[in-house]
Amino acid sequence: MVPIRLLRPDDPALPALAILMEEMQAHYRVACPPRSEIIAGLKAIPSGAEILVAEEQQRVHGFASFSGIYPGPGLKPGLFLKELYVAGSERRRGLGRALMQKLASLAMERGLSRIDWTADAENARLLAFHEELGGACKPDKLFSRLDGEALAQLAG
């Protein structure tokens, strides 16, 4: 299995992770900044944000980015999984599951009570993967986002 580890500041894997993030942006059909900006962003990750990388022979095959959250049920801390992505050429090898297992292990080691994430409602394959992991959809919760002009307007 491909080794999975936490990304470090100024990690030698930053350029390889930037390449995978370019692939991810193309996969989702969204704009992508130049590689130099991606690497600069990775070097300036906000405090509390972390990235797990599945890396082999100086190539990053997948990653999971996450942050600590508080409070959760019973006023316990947890993790929020922002992104889980595996290279198209590496899918069906179990890397997504392995990244999630490593994330679950980190959560348990840290005394955290849960992992939360979002998914596109139309992506049946992704939803089936989440269900296979044991993740339960929470139809009583809605995901909201404040960004762009609305964010600037509220900020004053």
What does this protein look like?
With 156 residues, the protein is an alpha+beta fold. The chain is 36% helix and 22% strand. It is built from five helices and five strands. The chain has helices at residues 14-27, 35-43, 95-109, 124-133, 148-155, and strands spanning 4-6, 49-56, 59-69, 78-86, 115-117. A five-stranded mixed sheet has the order 1-2-3-4-5, with helices on both faces. Helix 1 crosses helix 2. The longest helix is centred in the middle third of the chain and has 15 residues, at 95-109. The model has no long low-confidence stretch (mean pLDDT 91).
Present the secondary structure layout:
Blueprint: E1 4-6, H1 14-27, H2 35-43, E2 49-56, E3 59-69, E4 78-86, H3 95-109, E5 115-117, H4 124-133, H5 148-155
Parallel strand pairs: 4-5
Antiparallel strand pairs: 1-2, 2-3, 3-4
Helix pairs in contact: 1-2
